[in-house]
Amino acid sequence: MAKKRSRGLKSHAFRDKLLLNQWLISLFGIDPLVEQKLNGKLVRPFHKLAEPIRDARLEGLDKDNLHYFYHYLGDSPLLSSANPEAALPGFCINRDVLLTYEQNIVRHTQAINERRHRPVVWKYYQWLTLLFVEIYLDRFFGNREGLLHDLNAYVERFNSHWSEYVDVPPYNEDDLNKLCLQSATGSGKTLLMHVNLLQYRYYATKYGKDKDLLRVILLTPNEQLSQQHIAEFRESALSAGRYLQSRGSLFGFAQGLERVDVLEITKLADQEGPNTIATRSLGDQNLLLVDEGHRGLSGKDTKKNENAWFRNRTMLCEKGFTFEYSATFEQAVSETDQEDDYAKAIVFDYSYRWFYEDGFGKDYQILNLPKTYEETQATYLTACLLKFYQQLRIYEERSKDFNLFNLEKPLWVFVGSTVVKKIGQKEVETPNEVMLSDIGLIIQCIADFLYDRQTAIRRMHEILTGKGQDTGLLDKDGNDIFAGAFTYLARAMNDGETAESIYRDILARLFNHAAGGLLSLDRIKGESGEVALRVGTS
């Protein structure tokens, strides 16, 4: 009998009850319910699976067009009959099965690379994601009853193992038609989506189900992302277009799995209109791809009517299938009625903790300045400008050292105050002046830096040669917040450069105008609200 929620039972953290993901890992002879060790240290099951293929030197294909990942995972002890955990209950992966899935992944990857100038080369976690989807779709189409049985066998083991926790409910057949990919921002979800579409097409055709669905729909948060997705589908040699623009034409009718109709979630409505589509008119037998899948999962009624978005998108695939993509399912569904449903649907978890651990994330500092910030803000922002300049200079002067890492040119981003805040229980727009004051502060700082050359050079000299006690850039404990931050520029000054020569180089590198000049603002035409900054006559 299922354990009921009570004071005597604890609730699982979301990340600890990703049952579909755990079950898939178990197919490789790794029992997620048993402590796993790697080199004598306790690790999570994901680390145990990933260890044979995490080396970046294994990326790419061999002369037989097979991923090196396939060879190293296939040759690892995980797939060996000598693995003591290889006899876990239910279906397991062996080398022959792995090869079949690998050949599919390679074929789909070559398909999306056909038109690309820079071919996609998968990272280990992307390859594992595609492998997990291969396994799932093969079982989903080929033996759905067996898939349901095996998943519930694992749920039963899970609940029995964690007897002091509230049970996770078993799967029912309706739970099987949704897969969620929880992947960090920047981890390549869009490219995975393209291959997921090809994987679904392949297995639906293989098992004679390719005529069951009306169309493929990609739901996006806004028109800008829709256009971006259409361009990216085109680059992957996949047919896609805006649904509202094609409505009434040949493409407005059901196209099966051959074309992707791209539609903003905000355009779904109860009634048909010039800029909306009645959700019911699209039917409920669709393959649905959902970008930013966490939207509308909070269960709160907001002015954006996000709970209606979730209801509408659910209607589209009641008899179809869904792939949802987000970096933040965990945060979106926490303590909601949908928490267990999403925990059971996440096929692969590469959330930010794994992304950062693999070196793809960003290091950051939180610099807590004293209350006298207004007295030091010009010096502080000058120091921030110097840090960005130093990154840019290192990137340009040592580019050969970084080629291996495919690094992009550094970017300097300012984050202003939110334009939405709560007053009581209501969310209201903050007056534009609040946001503009942040933007204006940055623009004024840049303008002063360009206009008052001598003051800028003096501040730079103090920052690069002095200490926090000289600049006033100290934290509440009296520590220099920029201590050790400018070693590359300090070496340059030791080699004979001066603050003045660095200033001139900043004008050339950052502002594209070696002579400097007054800062001008040009509003870009259109509805983007963007402003271009121009220095002098450049």
Uncertain runs with pLDDT below 50, 5 residues or more?
248-252, 299-304, 418-422
Output the strand order for the largest sheet.
Answer: 5-6-4-9-10-3-11
Distance between the termini: 74 Å
Radius of gyration based on Cα positions = 27 Å
Supply the helix-strand structural class. alpha/beta
Q: Count of DSSP helices?
A: 20
- The geometry reads as globular
Q: What percentage of residues falls in helices of 4 or more residues?
A: 40-55%
Mean pLDDT: 85
Q: What portion of residues belong to β-strands?
A: 5-15%
Strands, count: 15
Q: Outline the biggest β-sheet.
A: 7 strands, parallel
Can you put this structure into words, describing what you see?
The chain is α/β, with parallel strands linked by helices and 538 residues long. It is built from 20 helices and 15 strands. It has helices spanning 19-26, 45-50, 68-74, 95-113, 124-142, 144-161, 189-206, 223-235, 243-246, 306-316, 329-333, 339-343, 352-357, 373-397, 399-402, 432-451, 453-465, 468-471, 487-494, 499-511; strands at 36-38, 41-43, 178-183, 215-220, 240-242, 260-264, 268-269, 277-278, 286-290, 321-326, 346-350, 420-423, 426-429, 519-523, 531-535. A seven-stranded parallel β-sheet has the order 5-6-4-9-10-3-11. Strand 5, helix 9 and strand 6 (260-264) form a beta-alpha-beta unit. Helix 4 (95-113) crosses helix 5 and helix 14 (373-397) crosses helix 17. The radius of gyration is 27 Å and the shape is globular. It starts with 18 loop residues before the first helix and ends with a strand.
